[in-house]
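Q: Please design a sequence for this.
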């Protein structure tokens, strides 16, 4: 069996567990063209980013699109879905994943945004809601006129363990050490830069409006939020939010954030597909 055949067999088996069509594999990942970036990326849209940072971000955004494509096809009975979302979240979740993936064509992008690479002394990046430094910060406010909202990429994004990998960092090479398919791995072992960028993109009001997300809040924004009250770990908080809606719905306040409205529930379900490998 050739190396390529082995890799595809591993990926096919993993996606079969999730109810994802194996016929979609080449399109979803192996045909990724980093030159065909996730959104219109004129030189002026990158602010204060080095050439190396631009390259890593282009790969990360392309991986976010690949994860969105995979997530869109996940079977609702799979744990990749049920650990983070309810059946009633499916339609909105699919719309969000679809909008992340749909913007992969820069000639016909349904929305746009700018990206700024923050300096090391950026105060916003030094303090996140969990008390530590932030990986990225996205302006979720509705757009004002023709001004595109900004995603600020913090210095930690380029050094942190959870964003150091991309979808090509490991091989799909069976149950071998260092493979995506290695058994005994945990969620953090599957996190990539694309995961974080997908999470951040769902905060964008322009993306969420295209995904037909309901508006909410005093400023009528449509994007996802980061839920509070379930701990500092985003993935644990996502599961806690789902549990509250499934098992303790009557205890929730009116207008409480639903799973499809929490960025990490959307991102974690997409990345969870890799865990079957």
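A: Design:
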């Amino acid at each position: 069996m050739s190396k390529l055949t082995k890799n595809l067999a591993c990926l096919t088996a993993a996606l079969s567990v999730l109810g994802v069509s194996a016929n979609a594999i080449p399109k979803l990942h192996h045909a990724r063209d980093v030159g065909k970036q996730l959104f219109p990326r004129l030189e002026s849209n990158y602010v204060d980013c080095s050439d190396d940072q631009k390259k890593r971000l282009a790969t990360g955004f392309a991986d976010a699109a690949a994860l969105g494509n995979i997530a869109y096809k996940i079977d609702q009975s799979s744990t990749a879905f049920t650990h983070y979302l309810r059946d009633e979240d499916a339609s909105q979740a699919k719309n969000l994943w679809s909008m992340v993936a749909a913007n992969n064509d820069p000639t016909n992008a349904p929305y746009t945004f700018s990206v700024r690479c923050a300096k090391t002394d950026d105060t916003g990046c030094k303090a996140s809601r969990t008390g530590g430094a932030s990986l990225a910060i996205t302006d979720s406010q509705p757009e004002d006129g023709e001004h595109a909202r900004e995603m600020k990429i913090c210095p930690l994004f380029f050094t942190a363990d959870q964003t150091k990998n991309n979808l090509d960092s490991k091989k799909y090479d069976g149950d071998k050490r260092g493979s995506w398919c290695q058994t005994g791995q945990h969620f953090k072992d599957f996190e990539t830069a694309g995961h974080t960028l997908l999470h951040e993109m769902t905060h964008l009001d322009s993306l969420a409006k295209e995904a037909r997300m309901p508006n909410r809040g005093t400023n009528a924004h449509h994007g996802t939020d980061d839920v509070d009250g379930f701990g500092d770990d985003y993935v644990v908080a996502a599961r806690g939010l789902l549990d509250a809606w499934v098992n303790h719905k009557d205890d929730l306040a009116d207008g409480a954030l639903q799973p499809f409205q929490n960025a990490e529930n959307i991102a974690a379900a997409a990345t969870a597909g890799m865990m079957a490998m």
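Q: Thanks. Anything notable?
A: Residues 1-44 have pLDDT under 50 and may be disordered. Residues 216 and 265 are 18 Å apart (CA to CA).
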